[in-house]
TrEMBL record, chains A, B, C, D:
GO molecular function, one term: flavin adenine dinucleotide binding
Protein name, UniProt field: Acyl-CoA dehydrogenase
Organism expressing this protein natively: Minwuia thermotolerans
Keywords for the protein's UniProt record, in alphabetical order: FAD, Flavoprotein, Oxidoreductase
Keyword Oxidoreductase: yes
Gene Ontology BP, a term: fatty acid beta-oxidation using acyl-CoA dehydrogenase
Domain Acyl-CoA oxidase/dehydrogenase middle: 127-212
GO cellular component labels: cytoplasm
UniProt domain Acyl-CoA dehydrogenase/oxidase N-terminal: residue ranges: 3-123
Length: 407, 407, 407, 407
């Protein structure tokens, strides 16, 4: 069945999305139309055909779309990753997917009705506001935004950035992470609240350029939250559950992000191969330079290994859950960001000056890949996590006894 | 004397340029004023004080400014490299410096009076139009633009891009490389002509975004040349001398570019050190993470080595000329682009998300550094040059005889 | 069942092999006893228990041992890889396994009876003589040894090296590659012949030190073949089938080699973790240096990815055969050699001076890993193969049309 | 003058040393003659011609040989580095040079007469015993050997390894580092004593194989010191001055080591060029593979930069002394070890299997280069030092104020 779904997605991609790349960019970048008519039409079609919400393994029977496991979603995500906005056609786009996921897991029925339902229908957008400019947010304990309880309301104060998508006018919901109890035990200090974007005290400060580029549909947004009040009913999950929910959110979000990047990389490698076959310098076809051959083969090597690791991670996530797949989730974050980054770098060298411009997807992809090494925690944080788990897993072993010392 | 000049440049930089970084960016990016009033005033001051045209070792006695050797210019270039527009204050900016240089070397007295003089005064700007979108331009033999002689005129037809600065309204001169005699022996097929930008048939197609970023003052420009006519007197140097002049142009241009990048890197390293001292994650100051220490120390190592090589190259260029310094010129191109690139990468990891934004110089610098690996020939071309020279220098030796075989 | 077999191998490894590391090294290096008594006893036990010839997926029903697929053998190979001589206990050691494999595939019944049978019983050893000192053997077409037909005999003349194991006195069989018909079409010029090591004209020149180390059990051997005569019945496969057989030999040989290396790497990572926990410099435990954590996490990342790729390759080899798994076989060669090499390098930095000595397995492993990048074709050859296949697979596609050009 | 000296050394090298490579190796490795007759003769000639002790910038007027600065010694050291034993011909070999240097600086007249004089004449050898197997010696504070004062004697107890040269029968002097006062302030806990190798209680445990290789002339030696007694007059320098002297020793030792490695690398690059010109695979000369060209050009790039940095370091050492050159000394340690290591790696890939054997200098050089990354402190320690100095030098600056924040 998954194969059949992927085939249908592929057909829509090939016939309806890929040919409209230029139309879309013109609509968004020139006309400022963030959801052009053909996109709306494609979304309706995808919804009607059930090619919808495929990235939500917890999709309830009464929720619209088709429930797939993370592993089943992999080949579809690879197709969608080829073009930035393809995911939105099928309501499989970030950050709404991970936001929907935590609402599915932690929201009350009332919260679901109000905030999740319209997201599941693709009628609105949401943003996750965690990272802050004033602290090293890779350590979530540093998050300083205050969420203070005053009677039956929470009052939120803080500055956020990299709240993806918040500046999109269609965005109506902010999921805000902040300190509810600074005196609580480590890991229980923070909570999440659902903040309507139009709540008094919410200011969209600006869209932040990332690697010199301002995104419009899912802009990295700076937000100011000044005495923003929400009813206590807007808390997501328990008080103090902020990190727990944050962790739950990250697993699948990363896996999907990795899958999409892998799909993009397939296109990039293919473009490199075709370029190598069509250009000539110093009397030699590019394809006959061994360094060009190496660049392409090394790209394949990195991509193939990254894909297998991502697939295993998806499989573990499906079978064992977020917690047991933790090491794998950190590993793929590092591996895919690196592979993606390196492939872009090699592609630019093969394309030369053209690779730097907007006439190939390399420059834009490189910027994404570069940022990917930072988002969801810089590589460094994940390496640390992997090390800690490596230590733990070996607990009690004593290889040194057996393998050290002169044999 | 050089030290004293550098000190004076440093003071102007510190007191007049650095404090106006924000003013400048606002003028250029928001107001579209590419030469704001304070810049004009600073140029007048620099001119009056003789801190002018210091990047032109061939500056004639009757030309304005102070003649310095390439080596003497090194510490000054490092100061200027810290902020993008600082070079312009002292009329030491690319691409006008290398363009002036080839005019000094190859222009007739009439050409000098008309085209060089206003550049030396900083009254106009120029652009060098070599690279073409339709061919692999890293091999200059591929350059396809035709410069056909018809009677006492040349007719130019072709498409160029990466003609730096051409789209700046102040630019009045294009130095165009093209084929004058496709049947000439290799190396003698191309010539250069001086084309007034307002000549009929010249179309500025667009400013090309490079790494997602559109430059305005020295934009990478795409040009269409359709039946552009210039008198034969506008040929620069002899017919067939296109590559010769191109080679002459590249040496000093690269050296200066490298020096500026090194100056920028000094700032970047310093920012990394300060950041490391001021942030804390997981209970540890960034400065106590050994990987952060390594990142900074490795940056110092790369920079120090690159600087020494650049200085030696400048010294050789001054003493032995372009041709004998050829290997060094290729080496610094590779070394500095890499060092600059790696330093930016490390800086972004240390700054985290902020490093991706416009609140630090890292993202912009990374884009520059990335492009630097392509401009003036991708690394690959220079590695090839180095190899060929390495082969040549060892000609006749036979180390294998002495060092191979079981001892 | 495979799990149960692996468990039994694990027990023998843990109880009988690991404790005898020192005994074995002493026997071989000090006493010159290449098959000490306890090894013989262990072999008998393994044979008796059917833990024998597990690396031969083509094991016939009437051949001794247990037939496993390549994929089933993977976890067992990982156990055996931890200690160099463990494979021999179970008759799963190189180069006899790949040699037996081509005999299984290409030998006549008579050849099998004479040459394969004793190998299957572990009673003798064999060597594969392809690489030559006088030509760049990574391109097998360069192999220059002549195998000339004279009546009903072949006369072999040439110089070989890296004929693994040939100098071991127990080795009785050389499988020699050479030119039978220099005028044949490319790919049909070479054949293989079975040469008894005691044939007149065979000279064992020396054991070649590799990375300063002379192996004794499976020494890299230099051979001189002077007018060595064998009956035509000693040709393996058809005349001109040399490369075909060579290719058939390489697939599984590489996969097994990779699996063993992965098992070794598991030990090395574990040793690094334990060392990091037990040493302290400059007031900090090694395990708290982020660069040490990174080294270990990066090792895990590389190993995990390499393992998945190796397992997929084994699976493909089992299902699709050598030819269709060709790209994967080249990919794992590169990936595992790199991972192994890098892990050794990192381990040495963590162990410091001790890592260079014989008190840890790192130095020996690094030498192996270094050589691994050359054996079976240097990385460069495999990158080239991957590139060619990449080109082929994309044949007819035209991504450039869809993804290039300003969107 | 230096040029003239270098020329004379070059002639001896070319005419007398290089042709005897095989003789020397045979004498040492096969015959066990660590100072063959022709070496003795060459030493006499070098001594007679004053080409002696050129690596000792503090050479007193009444000491034999020619005093050169570190910078003057550079070109000579590069010649000597090409062949391992060439330095010994001119009494410029490690570890005797740095040992002589600290004797020159810190020894009493009596100590000089007894221990330094015969070293200056090349009549004996010495060893420096600092590193210990039982502690992480990269942090010298960990050194645990006890040097206890008992009356007018010191009693030394401890285990040392990597005491270079100690196991050479000609070695008569051990310079031992150990704790004299564990309660002293940090940096004053350790002292050095001069221990005659034949003192009771000194046991030469073994020559330690490094990267699988046992050196005989300057073997990495493990020593056991059990109740070894020396008179207090044998203390070198003041009590507590152990680290001070150790620091003084390291500067020039590292610089010379780096210079020699650079000379070796010149040979290796040359061999790579020649090999590339002489081999052919897959229908293409190696020299036409761009990846081979890159490998050689990258080697040149690394070497040229390393050399410049080493020369500047020598110049600083000569002018400013050990302490002010500290950052440079750490930088060259890292840079040269890396360049040397990478050049060996690339050479092996170009030479293929032959590069792994004893028929080229690559395998031996790689082992040396690998160890070089550990000796005198692993790279990690030097990166840390560089970082600390980088922090210190920027003290008080505040670039962040000027360069951060949206411009």
């Amino acid at each position: 069945m998954t194969r059949e779904i992927a085939d249908r997605v592929e057909i829509i991609f090939r016939d309806e999305i890929l040919p409209r790349r230029a139309d879309y960019d013109r609509a968004v970048d020139v006309d400022g139309d963030l959801e052009p008519g053909f996109l709306k039409a494609l979304k309706r079609r995808a919804f009607a055909e059930g090619l919808w919400n495929m990235a939500l393994p917890r999709l309830a029977d009464d929720e619209p779309g088709t429930r797939l496991t993370n592993l089943q979603f992999a080949p579809i995500a690879e197709i969608l990753g080829r073009v930035g906005w393809a995911s939105e056609v099928f309501n499989c786009h970030a950050p709404d997917v991970p936001n929907m996921e935590i609402l599915q897991m932690f929201a009350t029925p009332e919260q679901k009705a109000r905030y999740l339902a319209p997201l599941l229908l693709g009628e609105t957008r949401s943003s996750f506001a965690m990272t802050e400019p004033d602290v090293a947010s890779s350590d979530a304990n540093n998050i300083a935004t205050r969420i203070e309880r005053r009677g039956d309301r929470y009052v939120v104060n803080g500055r956020k950035w990299f709240a993806t998508g918040a500046a999109n006018p269609k965005c109506s919901l902010l999921i805000v992470v902040g300190v509810t109890d600074p005196g609580a035990p480590r890991g229980r200090t923070h909570s999440m609240v659902l903040v309507p974007k139009d709540a008094p005290g919410v200011t969209v400060v600006r869209k932040i350029p990332v690697m010199n580029h301002v995104e419009h549909v899912a802009p990295h947004t700076e937000l100011l939250l000044e005495d923003v009040e929400v009813p206590v009913e807007n808390r997501l999950g328990e008080e103090g559950a902020g990190f727990l929910i944050g962790q739950a959110r990250l697993g699948p979000a990363r896996v999907h992000h990795c899958m999409r990047a892998i799909g993009r990389c397939e296109v990039l490698i293919r473009l490199m191969v075709e370029r190598a076959a069509s250009r000539r310098t110093f009397g030699t076809d590019l394809r006959d330079y061994s360094s060009v051959q190496d660049a392409i083969a090394d790209s394949r090597l990195a991509l193939e290994q990254a894909r297998l690791l991502v697939q295993r991670t998806a499989w573990r996530l499906d079978r064992e859950g977020n917690k047991l797949a933790r090491k794998d989730i950190s590993l793929i974050k590092i591996a895919v960001a690196r592979a993606y980054h390196d492939i872009c770098q090699r592609g630019i060298q093969i394309f030369g000056a053209m690779g730097l411009t907007d006439e190939t997807p390399f420059a834009e992809s490189l910027s994404q890949a570069r940022a990917f090494r930072i988002y969801d925690g810089p590589d460094e944080v994940h390496l640390r996590t992997v090390f800690r788990l490596e230590e733990k897993e070996g607990d009690g072993l004593n290889c040194s006894k057996d393998y050290l010392g002169r044999a």
